[in-house]
């Protein structure tokens, strides 16, 4: 089976605040015992994680379901904004959070991430993410994406060793000691980390921190833009681009002569183009017929991808793609809550697997940045030249993981 990943560059962060600092300490003791059992289980998991790839293949369909569900939720929540996010980043961050969540909070996280717990076990989920991170971070020539997790922990916060061990071994998370009583310095520390890890692409992305914060969980997916090298500067031309809402703007278009796969889907009223992105990945552009963007967004399902894969035609052609630099910042909270993650963000949240106490609350922060990737472009000419100049949906697929 072929693994599919939906990757977009994104930084995703969860900020934790402490409350109810006066809960009894014996909860702590109990958890430590149960957790040492967990720990044994997870260490075994970690060993297996690097030896076979079946767990990764097992989580892929659920991750794809989550990607489509979240996209649909977000497109119905935001009317005329570009939507640009990395579902794999959000899944990874929340799966990591689920390690520290208990009871209903935990079940809600798994369900919202589209995992059906009667089909896949909790252990398999974490093993799958472990393999995913491992595979993406293997050193290789044509690096497509790198994924990273980090925890910034307040010096005063007592985190259960089990949780730390799990996030380090399963999610390769780096941990840093931070003093959130100095919020400006703490924010600087997170920003420096991101800037370093993303080859200076993510600069000053963290929002303002407060002294009530005790932990920051960061996930980033760094996505290398191969097109930047392939598009010939002499062939870059300024053209009109019709943006969402019928406004015409001038944009630089990059030209590439390449083999593409394309088709027109009559049922969905859209064209689909597949363009090689790197040796391991292809980019798909879904171009709704005029005025059909909302319809396509509403009806698009994961199964369409397989349908298209079987009916592509193949042709060498010139492709014009608008050159974009895009930054976005989202509040996913509403969308995730509507997908079933109700308790995580409210007072009922149970993250006692992190500290042994029910004293943590979550808020989230995220932002994304991309260059060279078009987001919502419009006219699709059926002649020799393909021009992406109107609203489009795009996704990047990495093959053969
Ligand atoms: C979960 O999986 C079971 C067994 O395959 C299935 O019967 C059930 O409908 C699934 N639940 C959801 C919400 O998809
Ligand atoms: C991050 O910092 C380390 C040293 O602190 C350096 O070796 C590494 O090259 C940096 N990485 C990036 C992508 O800048
Ligand atoms: C966009 O502009 C074209 C031509 O100017 C017009 O026919 C069309 O109705 C407009 N679409 C919208 C959604 O305003
Ligand atoms: C409560 C509980 O399950 N405690 C167990 C924790 O793990 C040790 C062995 O590692 C067991 O002996 C405890 O019973």
Automatic annotation (TrEMBL):
Q: What is this protein called?
A: Serpin A3-3-like isoform X2
Serpin domain segment(s): 68-391
MF annotations from Gene Ontology: serine-type endopeptidase inhibitor activity
**Recorded GO CC terms:** extracellular space
User: Signal sequence: where?
Assistant: 1-24
Name of the encoding gene: LOC129324659
Tell me the classification of the organism that encodes this protein.
Eukaryota, Metazoa, Chordata, Craniata, Vertebrata
Segments forming a coiled coil: none
The UniProt similarity line reads: Belongs to the serpin family.
Top-rank lineage group of the source organism: Eukaryota
Q: Which organism is it from?
A: Eublepharis macularius
> Pfam families, per this entry?
Serpin
Q: Does the keyword Iron-sulfur apply?
A: no
């Amino acid at each position: 089976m072929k693994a599919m990943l939906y990757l977009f560059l994104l930084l995703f962060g969860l900020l934790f605040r402490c409350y109810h600092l006066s809960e009894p300490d014996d909860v702590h003791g109990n958890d430590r015992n149960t957790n040492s059992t967990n720990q044994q289980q997870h260490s075994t998991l970690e060993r297996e994680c690097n030896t076979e790839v079946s767990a990764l293949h097992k989580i892929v369909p659920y991750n794809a379901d989550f990607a489509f569900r979240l996209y649909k939720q977000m497109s119905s929540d935001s009317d005329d904004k570009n939507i640009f996010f990395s579902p794999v980043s959000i899944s990874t961050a929340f799966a990591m959070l689920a390690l520290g969540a208990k009871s209903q909070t935990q079940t809600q996280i798994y369900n919202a991430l589209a995992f059906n717990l009667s089909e896949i076990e909790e252990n398999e989920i974490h093993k799958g993410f472990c393999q995913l991170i491992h595979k993406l971070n293997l050193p290789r020539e044509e690096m497509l994406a790198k994924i990273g997790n980090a925890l910034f922990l307040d010096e005063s916060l007592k985190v259960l060793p089990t949780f730390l061990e799990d996030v380090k071994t399963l999610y390769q998370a780096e941990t840093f000691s931070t003093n959130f009583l100095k919020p400006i310095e703490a924010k600087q520390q997170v920003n420096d980390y991101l800037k370093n890890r993303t080859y200076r692409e993510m600069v000053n992305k963290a929002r303002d921190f407060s002294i009530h914060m005790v932990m920051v969980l960061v996930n980033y997916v760094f996505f290398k833009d191969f097109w930047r090298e392939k598009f010939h500067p002499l062939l870059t031309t300024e053209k009109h681009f019709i943006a969402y809402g019928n406004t015409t703007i001038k944009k630089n278009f990059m030209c590439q002569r390449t083999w593409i796969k394309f088709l027109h889907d009559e049922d969905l009223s859209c064209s689909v183009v597949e363009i090689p992105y790197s040796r391991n990945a292809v980019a798909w552009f879904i171009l709704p017929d005029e005025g059909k963007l909302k319809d396509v967004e509403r009806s698009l399902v994961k199964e369409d991808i397989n349908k298209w894969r079987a009916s592509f035609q193949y042709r060498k052609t010139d492709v014009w793609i608008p050159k974009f630099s895009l930054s976005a910042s989202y509040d996913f909270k509403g969308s995730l809550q509507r997908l079933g993650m109700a308790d995580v963000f409210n007072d009922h949240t149970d993250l006692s697997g992190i500290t042994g106490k029910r004293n943590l609350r979550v808020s989230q922060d995220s932002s994304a940045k991309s260059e060279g990737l078009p987001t919502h472009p419009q006219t699709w000419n059926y002649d020799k030249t393909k021009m992406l100049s109107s609203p489009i949906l795009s996704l990047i697929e990495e093959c053969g993981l």
